[in-house]
Amino acid sequence: MKARTIDDYLVGVPELQRGALERLRAQIRTAAPDAEEGISYGMPAFKLDGRFFVGFGAGKDHLSLYAGKAPLEAFKAELGGYRLWKGTINFKADRPLPADLVTRLVEFRIAEFRERDR
Q1: Residue 104 pLDDT more than 70?
Q2: CA 78 – CA 66 distance, rounded (Å)
Q3: What is the pLDDT of residue 30?
Q4: How far apart are CA 46 and CA 44, in angstroms?
Q5: pLDDT digits (tens, 9 = 90+) for 87-100
Q6: Residue 117 pLDDT class (50, 70, 90 cuts)
Q7: Residue 52: its pLDDT value, please?
Q8: What residues have CB less than 8 Å from 3, skipping those under 6 apart?
Q9: What is the mean pLDDT of residues 17-25?
Q10: Which domains does the chain have, with CATH numbers?
Q11: Which of 64, 62, 40 is closest to 52 using CA atoms?
């Protein structure tokens, strides 16, 4: 059965990964309190003004934060220990992204979104 909510999605994730994703979810919520939670392409997503702006998910051997290309370029030096590709950061549950970095990535993405709307 496909997940209809982020909570539904997380139920199907192994415990160690689930804990890391729950922390990531809370960090995103704190950095983007006006964002709406949902599921997009089968993955947890956050939307601003009805449009996807950041998401996350669990793979077989890693977790991912989907933040977009521009934030990855802007914080490339701090992301050196992670696998980066096509706007995605891959990381391990036992080596999560630092909370302050998640906050700055999300804030950068929000600013990028707001700039497009001008």
Answers
A1: yes
A2: 16
A3: 97
A4: 7
A5: 999 999 999 999 99
A6: low
A7: 92
A8: 9, 11, 12, 39, 42
A9: 97
A10: 6-116 (3.90.1150.200)
A11: 40
| Three-state secondary structure of the chain | CCCCCHHHHHHCCCHHHHHHHHHHHHHHHHHCCCCEEEEECCEEEEEECCEEEEEEEECCCCEEEECCHHHHHHCHHHHCCCEEECCEEEEECCECCCHHHHHHHHHHHHHHHHHHCC
Which residues in 34-47 are b (16+ Cβ under 10 Å) and which e?
ebeebbeeebbbbb
Q: Which amino acid is at 55?
A: G
Q: Assess contact for 28 and 106: CB atoms under 8 A.
A: yes
Give the position of tokens 């992301």: 79
